[in-house]
């Protein structure tokens, strides 16, 4: 059983790299962002709470994130292990993780803030099916339309320069100390996230002695 935490600033490719690892190694990919987006899409009570926070330009609180992650991990559907992104978000949560789970490693995707801004502000989301696009690396065949369902592509409500600046400041103030804590436990492998997704995936697998990444054999095409 393999258990990993993947960390990196927004736009560093955590979701893409997690999905590639999960598909090839039978891991459960636990994405805090995906969980919240599911609740928003399905109009749950939690989704309404998240929607209000986003509309106000605020960040989802650490306590709420911790509650969601604890509930998700208690499902115990990760027979071969998991890779979790979007958590932990502070030192206390990191210490809980170290005490509760025998981690195999922390993948730290390192990306400069200037590149984060370039990537994040190019993101688009299908308003109908939720498919993710990026106008830099994953453009739709028809501008403004989803390749899967034909829905309109929109900018996420929280993908604005001001909101991104707040998220970057929050990330560095909270997550940098978490990464330092993990480093002292010798769990962290820092990967340069500026390269293309295949290069980054190969670097992750090399550093963690995982089976090689072969895109032609991978079960995830995107």
Automatic annotation (TrEMBL):
<dbReference type="Pfam" id="PF00406">
    <property type="entry name" value="ADK"/>
</dbReference>
<keyword id="KW-0547">Nucleotide-binding</keyword>
<feature type="binding site">
    <location>
        <begin position="58"/>
        <end position="60"/>
    </location>
    <ligand>
        <name>AMP</name>
    </ligand>
</feature>
<feature type="region of interest" description="LID">
    <location>
        <begin position="122"/>
        <end position="159"/>
    </location>
</feature>
<dbReference type="Pfam" id="PF05191">
    <property type="entry name" value="ADK_lid"/>
</dbReference>
<feature type="binding site">
    <location>
        <position position="149"/>
    </location>
    <ligand>
        <name>Zn(2+)</name>
    </ligand>
</feature>
<feature type="binding site">
    <location>
        <position position="93"/>
    </location>
    <ligand>
        <name>AMP</name>
    </ligand>
</feature>
<comment type="pathway">
    <text>Purine metabolism; AMP biosynthesis via salvage pathway; AMP from ADP: step 1/1.</text>
</comment>
<dbReference type="InterPro" id="IPR006259">
    <property type="entry name" value="Adenyl_kin_sub"/>
</dbReference>
<feature type="binding site">
    <location>
        <begin position="11"/>
        <end position="16"/>
    </location>
    <ligand>
        <name>ATP</name>
    </ligand>
</feature>
<feature type="binding site">
    <location>
        <position position="129"/>
    </location>
    <ligand>
        <name>Zn(2+)</name>
    </ligand>
</feature>
<dbReference type="InterPro" id="IPR033690">
    <property type="entry name" value="Adenylat_kinase_CS"/>
</dbReference>
<protein>
    <recommendedName>
        <fullName>Adenylate kinase</fullName>
        <ecNumber>2.7.4.3</ecNumber>
    </recommendedName>
</protein>
<feature type="binding site">
    <location>
        <position position="123"/>
    </location>
    <ligand>
        <name>ATP</name>
    </ligand>
</feature>
<dbReference type="InterPro" id="IPR027417">
    <property type="entry name" value="P-loop_NTPase"/>
</dbReference>
<dbReference type="GO" id="GO:0016301">
    <property type="term" value="F:kinase activity"/>
</dbReference>
<feature type="binding site">
    <location>
        <begin position="86"/>
        <end position="89"/>
    </location>
    <ligand>
        <name>AMP</name>
    </ligand>
</feature>
<dbReference type="InterPro" id="IPR000850">
    <property type="entry name" value="Adenylat/UMP-CMP_kin"/>
</dbReference>
<feature type="binding site">
    <location>
        <position position="195"/>
    </location>
    <ligand>
        <name>ATP</name>
    </ligand>
</feature>
<keyword id="KW-0963">Cytoplasm</keyword>
<keyword id="KW-0067">ATP-binding</keyword>
<keyword id="KW-0545">Nucleotide biosynthesis</keyword>
<comment type="subunit">
    <text>Monomer.</text>
</comment>
<comment type="function">
    <text>Catalyzes the reversible transfer of the terminal phosphate group between ATP and AMP. Plays an important role in cellular energy homeostasis and in adenine nucleotide metabolism.</text>
</comment>
<dbReference type="InterPro" id="IPR007862">
    <property type="entry name" value="Adenylate_kinase_lid-dom"/>
</dbReference>
<feature type="region of interest" description="NMP">
    <location>
        <begin position="31"/>
        <end position="60"/>
    </location>
</feature>
<feature type="binding site">
    <location>
        <position position="126"/>
    </location>
    <ligand>
        <name>Zn(2+)</name>
    </ligand>
</feature>
<keyword id="KW-0479">Metal-binding</keyword>
<comment type="similarity">
    <text>Belongs to the adenylate kinase family.</text>
</comment>
<feature type="binding site">
    <location>
        <position position="156"/>
    </location>
    <ligand>
        <name>AMP</name>
    </ligand>
</feature>
<dbReference type="InterPro" id="IPR036193">
    <property type="entry name" value="ADK_active_lid_dom_sf"/>
</dbReference>
<feature type="binding site">
    <location>
        <position position="167"/>
    </location>
    <ligand>
        <name>AMP</name>
    </ligand>
</feature>
<keyword id="KW-0862">Zinc</keyword>
<keyword id="KW-0418">Kinase</keyword>
<feature type="domain" description="Adenylate kinase active site lid">
    <location>
        <begin position="123"/>
        <end position="158"/>
    </location>
</feature>
<feature type="binding site">
    <location>
        <position position="146"/>
    </location>
    <ligand>
        <name>Zn(2+)</name>
    </ligand>
</feature>
<feature type="binding site">
    <location>
        <position position="37"/>
    </location>
    <ligand>
        <name>AMP</name>
    </ligand>
</feature>
<keyword id="KW-0808">Transferase</keyword>
